[in-house]
Write a structure and sequence with these properties.
The protein is an alpha+beta fold and 101 residues long. 35% of the residues lie in helices and 36% in strands. The protein has helices at residues 21-39, 66-81, and strands at residues 5-14, 42-47, 54-63, 86-95. Helix 1 (21-39) runs antiparallel to helix 2. The chain starts with a strand and ends in a 6-residue tail after the last strand.
């Protein structure tokens, strides 16, 4: 039985147009929903909760093989980079079944 692979994408986004936490929330909700809908990601806001122009998101992508999991994370990163906000930082990693114990 194959256990699959998990690619993890951690990003920091900057929203120059957000003038309040409410304005930021609009962008964050959109980014999270699009990552889930387009790429099947599970997404959480993990950093910069109190700043209204910054956001830290972590997304996970599960696939049968390493290549597919990494490809999903790479495509998601490229999508994030092409949006109206600024992609400040992106880190990708891969978790293999043998890494989970």
């Amino acid at each position: 039985m194959s256990d699959g692979f998990v690619a993890i994408l951690a990003v920091e986004l900057h929203f120059p147009e957000a003038g309040s936490l409410k304005g930021k929330r609009k962008y964050v909700k959109s980014a999270k929903a699009q990552l889930a809908n387009r790429f099947g990601a599970s997404v959480a806001e993990v950093d910069h909760h109190d700043l209204w122009q910054r956001c830290g998101l972590t997304a996970s992508f599960v696939a049968r093989n390493a290549h597919d999991a990494e490809a999903l994370a790479e495509r998601a990163e490229a999508w994030l980079a092409g949006q109206e906000w600024e992609l400040v930082r992106a880190d990708r990693s891969l978790v293999a079944p043998e890494d989970i114990a």
